[in-house]
Amino acid sequence: MEDMHVTAQATDTMHDIKIKAKDVQVYYGNNHAIKDVSVDILDRTVTAFIGPSGCGKSTFLRCFNRMNDTISIARVEGNILIDDEDIYDRRVDPVQLRAKVGMVFQKPNPFPKSIYDNVAYGPKIHGLAKNKSDLDDIVERALRRSALWDEAKDRLHEPGTGLSGGQQQRLCIARAVATEPEVLLMDEPCSALDPIATAQVEELIDDLRQNYSVVIVTHSMQQAARVSQKTAFFHLGNLVEYDDTDVIFSNPKDSRTESYISGKIG
Amino acid sequence: MTNTTEGQHIASAFDRDLEQVTALIVKMGGLVEVAILDGAKSLETRDLELAEQVREADKRIDTLEEQINDVATTIIARRAPVATDLRIILSVLRISSNLERVGDYAKNMAKRTSVLAEMPRMNGSEAGLRRMAKEVQEMLKDVLDAFIRRDVQLAEDVRSRDLDVDQMYNALFREFLTFMMEDPRNITACMHLHFIAKNVERMGDHVTNIAEQVIYLVTGEHPEEGRPKGDRTPFVTEEGV
After folding, report:
1. Does the beta-carbon distance from A264 to B86 stay under 8 Å?
2. What is the pTM of this model?
3. What is the DSSP track for A98-113?
4. Domain holding A114: CATH number?
């Protein structure tokens, strides 16, 4: 028992730091949405962000691929380094950054194009394929990696919007992994899915961990407990507690974490 | 009543479930305390009627354990408890199974009473056994209080008192060995009495397990090993008595 615990710890600390956030502040106009958050996100690890609505977890997630740039009143301060490189440096091209840091959203949002074109879109605009057969390979690999290949291989040229909700979400994951990102951000990826599709996506998240650093925002405590190795709890824009997921769910140190995860009135 | 961590659950039915399971533990613990005292008393006073009551009462203890298991299973299935709630459920399950074992030992003591009542008395050993049982019952009472009050200090205190029970057992072990060596006709009675003594010593170990469970419940950490152990009888030889 003791040994097992030590092994679990050891595998968690073996991974390098992928994303280093330091003293991050986010403002929406006068609203101070993220307050002085510092956190190290590990490579090849699933990290879950949990917290009540409006706590800033999605806002913070969106800092990692500069999605907040698209909101005119949003202002980000502090440092976010991916592989020791400041992603807010003015030399960084946000479009290139987003190829490296993929994102999957709450609602499946396939382009109104074929399944094939949905996946091929990213590799095409980033010039990742030399020719048609190269592109075919990329599409197949991405669909296999997102566990959609078997269901989609005979209908690659049908519209992506014709798939079921769970399939559409896996298509969006295929689209995100097609550009060979290093980090995958997922904002409530299962909230619109039924339990079976959810289980498939969770299984996929666990597979993706072999190659990527995955950061997932979720409202489902059980999902965070199931899929992640690290959990961060946010409250009112603060990072309250960040620890191994088994510690957070069996013996959290902060009473606010305890209250939130066990559904208590603060 | 159940939660020392401030705040109640938004789902108040969850609090009621936890209170219910805690109340069942308290009830079960109370029955086990009575069984220990009555078992020892029936042995000393050779009260066969009381011994029979102890054997009967064990069925209620077993039923309560099943009930606690059922409620705990339902809570796990329906509420997916985490953090303190999870530790409450884990503790409740382990405490109830330890209580059930203590109840069984008390029943066994009552069973042997009916056999021993037919044999000559062993020079006050029964009184020694009753004192030992009384000590265990008091430890049990305190550990149940520690469970309700989430009192780590009291649980630690109970844990350390197991040493006294072990020492009482050592003394009885030597006493029985002496009686048997003095007169082989004492062997049957002493064998029974020794089993009772050993069982009471084990009750102490189960109460100690409960104390450790209470410490885990409150702190989230398992108490360190290295609890003082006083049972020296595994090393006794005939020369060394």
Report:
1. no
2. 0.82
3. HHHEEEE-SS----SS
4. 3.40.50.300
